[in-house]
Here is the input.
Amino acid sequence: MDRPATQPGWGFLVRMALLGAVLYAATSWVTVFATTSSSAIAGNLRPGVAIPIFFGFAFGPLVGFVVGFGGNLLADTLTGFVQFPLDASSPRALAASLQINWQVANGLLGLIPGFAVLRQWCYQTREGLLKALALTSFAVVGAGLFAAVLDPFVFVYEDQTTIWQTVARDNLPLVLINWIYAAVIVPILLFNYAYRHLYGPAMLRAGLMQRVLLTVVISAAVPIIMLSIFLLEANARLNGGWSGAFGGVFFQLAVTILMTTVFILTNAALMAQSMTRPLIELSASARAMEKNTLTLAQAETLKATTGDDEIAQLSRVFGTMAQEVIQREQELRKHVQELQIMIDEHKRSDQVKEIVETDFFRDLKQKARAMRERGKAQPASTNE
Here is the structure.
């Protein structure tokens, strides 16, 4: 991801941190009903875990930490895991009522990936996305291990649970689930964010864009509809029929389905644009080259196209070819101008030669010489 020419100010970073925290809390709240059937995991399946990781990659470690810490604290407050007023009878009781180790662990989810901003990784290439996936894995494992190790020091376990038992019981299953969500969602978000400069409403009018988008939407709509019907029917059965199914869980399930649909369609549109926009720009450059209006700067931009896919390679090859053609044309024009100057000088020389060799010019030259001689003779006769 290329760093912008001007660094964002604190106001922008604060807005992004607040936006990310609200998004993280909202996605965690609407998916709080989604728990695993295993009693070994005392938690929820939250695909929103990708949000603080993405905000860390996009806006730096500070924003990532605030999104993870603040968003999880807000989500725990909404879902009842953290209840106010807090128990301030002792520092340990206060830490336990805040579940401080898990709040900090969620902050680490955004803090660790945020350091990638300092390296200016590019997420338009396979190498950049693999680096991001590796750092994401490290963040998920590190955050989960941090929370599990501190659990016995924050909470009081009646069965004298050891640290390693906590890790095996709470850390490993949650790390696996969070890693699956992050490994799938974060690369998609980073890829689309890296190509954010390509997106625009005008792209929807492109024929290739419309065909690709229609194909992706149809392919995604069928499984979404089938899964939605299955989940709603299962919820109705658990609640004794459709009459008792319209409760809080139904609302959260409906919101989750809606968010999933919006996420899939949005990413489908963005990824379709990222695939079709370079082809459209390449086509426009080819037409400009045909009309001899393609500039050297535009050719250099094509030559500097990032990415390791075939479209990026084609853009770089075309940019190199166009640059060489434009440079040759410029050199040819320069030689033509120099040749024109030489021709003009030769013409002037021939014209002067023609004038000098005429009888009129010779006669005029003789008269001028005679006048100069008479002018020299007159002063001599005057002195005598």
About this structure: Residues 1-5, 36-43 have pLDDT under 50 and may be disordered.
